[in-house]
UniProtKB/TrEMBL annotation:
UniProt-annotated location(s): Cell membrane
Organism annotation: Rhizobium fabae
Role, per record: Cell wall formation. Catalyzes the transfer of a GlcNAc subunit on undecaprenyl-pyrophosphoryl-MurNAc-pentapeptide (lipid intermediate I) to form undecaprenyl-pyrophosphoryl-MurNAc-(pentapeptide)GlcNAc (lipid intermediate II).
One GO term describing the cellular component: plasma membrane
Keywords assigned: Cell cycle, Cell division, Cell membrane, Cell shape, Cell wall biogenesis/degradation, Glycosyltransferase, Membrane, Peptidoglycan synthesis, Transferase
The name this protein goes by in its record: UDP-N-acetylglucosamine--N-acetylmuramyl-(pentapeptide) pyrophosphoryl-undecaprenol N-acetylglucosamine transferase
Chain's gene name: murG
All copies of domain Glycosyltransferase family 28 N-terminal, residue ranges: 6-142
Family: Belongs to the glycosyltransferase 28 family. MurG subfamily.
InterPro entries: GlcNAc_MurG (IPR006009), Glyco_trans_28_C (IPR007235), GlycoTrans_28_N (IPR004276)
The reaction(s) this protein catalyses: di-trans,octa-cis-undecaprenyl diphospho-N-acetyl-alpha-D-muramoyl-L-alanyl-D-glutamyl-meso-2,6-diaminopimeloyl-D-alanyl-D-alanine + UDP-N-acetyl-alpha-D-glucosamine = di-trans,octa-cis-undecaprenyl diphospho-[N-acetyl-alpha-D-glucosaminyl-(1->4)]-N-acetyl-alpha-D-muramoyl-L-alanyl-D-glutamyl-meso-2,6-diaminopimeloyl-D-alanyl-D-alanine + UDP + H(+)
Listed pathway(s): Cell wall biogenesis; peptidoglycan biosynthesis
Main location: membrane
Pfam families hit by this protein: Glyco_tran_28_C (PF04101), Glyco_transf_28 (PF03033)
Length: 374
C-alpha cells in the first residue's frame, strides 16, 4: 500500500528532470507513488521517469517587455495555476516538490495556496528565476550548491547536493589511475547542447600544437554538435589522432571513469557527476548563461582543488595546449586534483533529498530536520 502521493514539478530540460527522476526512484523504493508535472518538452523522458502519471499544465515565462506578451503570459500562468489546483485537489499529494523551470510555478503556487507542504530543489550555486520567485512561499529548499548560511533563504536551505544517475554511482567505484610517461592519456571533452561549439573549434588547434610524443599518448572522447562532426573528424584524421567523436555518448559515465582529465562546461549536473566520480577537470563556464550560474558552480569545485576554472575569453588553443603539456607530464598533480574532487562529491544526495522530502511532508521544520542530521 502506498504511503501517499508525491507530486514532482520540473521544467522540461534534462537539468531539471534528471534530479527529479533520481528522487522519484528513491521515493518509490520507500513506498510512495510519484506523479510528475512538467511541460511538453519532457515527453522524451516519459519512458524513463518512474511516475504513475505525467501531467502537463499550462505555463509561461515572463521574459518580454511587450505589454501584450506579458498579459498573455500572465493569463497562461493563471490558467496553469487553476489546472494545477484541480490536479492537487484530485491527487491529494502529501508534498509538492519543485525542481526549477517555469513549469514549476503553477503547481507550487497552487500547493502553497492550498496549504499542501511544498519545497524546492535548486541545482545551481545561483538560484534560478522560477525558484527565486517561489522561495519565499515554500517550507524548505534543498541545494545542490546553495550554501546553508549567508544566502537569502539560508534559514530554510539544506545542502543535499545534486542526485546523480546510478551509472555515475557505479563509475565512482573505479579508482583514479594516473597516466605516466609513455602511457595512454584519456581526455574527455564535452560542452552540452549549447556549449559544445567552442570546443569543436578550439580543441583540434590546441592538439595540433602539442609535441608529437604527447599527441601520440592522447585518447580523446569529444562530444560535438551534429553540424560540427565532419570538421572535427577531419581534423582528427589529419592529425592521425585516436578519437571518439559523437553528438552523444550512451556510456559517458564509463568514459568519465576512465578519464585522466576532463575539459567541459560547468552545469550543475556535470560538476556533481565529476565530483562524485572524482576526476580532475578544467571547467569553462558557459559565458551566455543568464544567471552566470555555471561560473558559481565551477567556483564551488575549484575551491576544493578539484578543478581549474578558466573563462572562455581567456582559453585560447595555445593555452589549452600549454595546460595539456604540463598536466600530462605531472600525473601526481592530476591524482591530487582527482582526490580533491572526490572529497567534494555527494554520492548520497538522492537519499538525503528523499529524507528531507519525507520530513517536510510529515510537518517537520528545516531546523528540526537539521537537528536529526547532527
Amino acid at each position: 500500500m502506498s504511503k501517499g502521493i508525491v507530486l514532482l514539478a520540473a521544467g522540461g530540460t534534462g537539468g531539471h528532470v534528471f534530479p527529479a527522476e533520481a528522487l522519484a526512484f528513491k521515493l518509490k523504493e520507500r513506498g510512495y507513488s510519484v506523479h510528475l508535472v512538467t511541460d511538453s518538452r519532457a515527453e522524451r523522458y516519459a519512458g524513463k521517469f518512474p511516475a504513475e502519471e505525467i501531467h502537463v499544465v499550462p505555463s509561461a515565462t515572463i521574459g518580454s517587455k511587450n505589454p501584450v506578451a506579458v498579459a498573455r503570459s500572465l493569463w497562461t500562468l493563471w490558467s496553469g495555476m487553476r489546472a494545477a489546483k484541480k490536479l492537487i485537489q484530485r491527487l491529494k499529494p502529501v508534498i509538492v516538490v519543485g525542481f526549477g523551470g517555469y513549469p514549476t510555478v503553477p503547481p507550487l503556487l497552487a500547493a502553497t495556496r492550498l496549504g499542501v507542504p511544498s519545497m524546492l530543489h535548486e541545482q545551481n550555486a545561483v538560484m534560478g528565476r522560477a525558484n527565486k520567485a517561489l522561495a519565499p512561499r515554500v517550507k524548505a529548499i534543498a541545494g545542490g550548491f546553495l550554501p546553508e548560511s549567508g544566502g537569502a533563504f539560508s534559514d530554510k536551505t539544506i545542502a543535499t547536493g545534486n542526485p546523480v544517475r546510478p551509472a555515475i554511482l557505479a563509475a565512482a567505484e573505479q579508482p583514479y589511475l594516473p597516466s605516466r610517461a609513455g602511457e595512454p592519456f584519456n581526455l574527455v571533452v564535452f560542452g552540452g547542447s549549447q556549449g559544445a561549439q567552442y570546443f569543436s573549434k578550439a580543441m583540434p588547434t590546441a592538439i595540433s600544437l602539442l609535441d608529437d610524443v604527447l599527441r601520440e599518448r592522447l585518447r580523446i572522447t569529444q562530444q560535438v554538435r551534429p553540424e560540427d562532426m565532419e570538421m572535427v573528424r577531419g581534423c582528427a584524421a589529419q592529425l592521425q589522432m585516436s578519437a571518439d567523436i559523437a553528438p552523444f555518448f550512451n556510456d559517458m559515465a564509463e568514459r568519465l571513469a576512465k578519464a585522466h582529465l576532463v575539459i567541459c562546461r560547468s552545469g550543475a549536473s556535470t560538476v556533481s557527476e565529476i565530483s562524485v566520480i572524482g576526476r580532475p577537470a578544467v571547467l569553462v563556464p558557459y559565458p551566455h548563461a543568464l544567471d552566470h550560474d555555471q561560473a558559481a558552480n565551477a567556483a564551488a569545485l575549484a575551491a576544493t582543488g578539484g578543478a581549474k576554472v578558466i573563462v572562455q575569453a581567456e582559453l585560447s588553443p595555445e593555452r589549452i595546449a600549454s595546460i595539456l603539456s604540463h598536466v600530462m607530464n605531472d600525473p601526481e598533480k592530476l591524482a591530487g586534483m582527482a582526490a580533491a574532487a572526490k572529497l567534494a562529491g555527494k554520492p548520497d544526495a538522492a537519499n538525503l533529498l528523499a529524507d528531507m522530502v519525507e520530513a517536510i511532508a510529515a510537518g517537520k521544520t528545516v531546523s528540526e530536520f537539521k537537528r536529526t542530521r547532527v
